[in-house]
Amino acid sequence: GELSLDEFIDGARRDNITYVTGDLFSCPRDESLAHCISEDCRMGAGIAVMFKKKFGGVEELKKQGRQVGQCAVLERDSRFVYYLITKKIYSHKPTYDSLKQSLEDMKSHCAEYGVSKVSMPRIGCGLDRLHWGRVSDILKEVFEHSNISITVYSLPEKTETTVMRESKREAPRKRKH
Fold it and tell me: Domain Macro: where (predicted)?
């Protein structure tokens, strides 16, 4: 028994969460986006930098005055961009609780505005150091009885380490000749 393509695709779909490898920003234009930030809206490292470049709106986000465990929202080209506030200041680390609360907050915004698709990176797992096993359980728990489907984008391994290294601003190691 070889798996049919449909069965294979279903396998990658755990409940209403789908995992894909690729560039988050290449997701369909009608899908909302989400990522984690700190309450100070610094967005100085990791994928947040790309969100800041692409969507701007830092002042608008600050004006919303959202706090840890909530989410701030920008509307861009007929879709929403969710900023999950998982920590007070950029140098802090988030907790699983703050992540879960901010996802719940995003879920109620989605429900209110009829959003059914959200794409996100592996939230909390880059520079924030949360464990993906637990984060994916939280995602499942938050969205399982909703009609919101989540697509989680992972960069191909190689790029992910390069991106991580750049965002930590380490000097590249000298290669031995």
Answer: 4-159
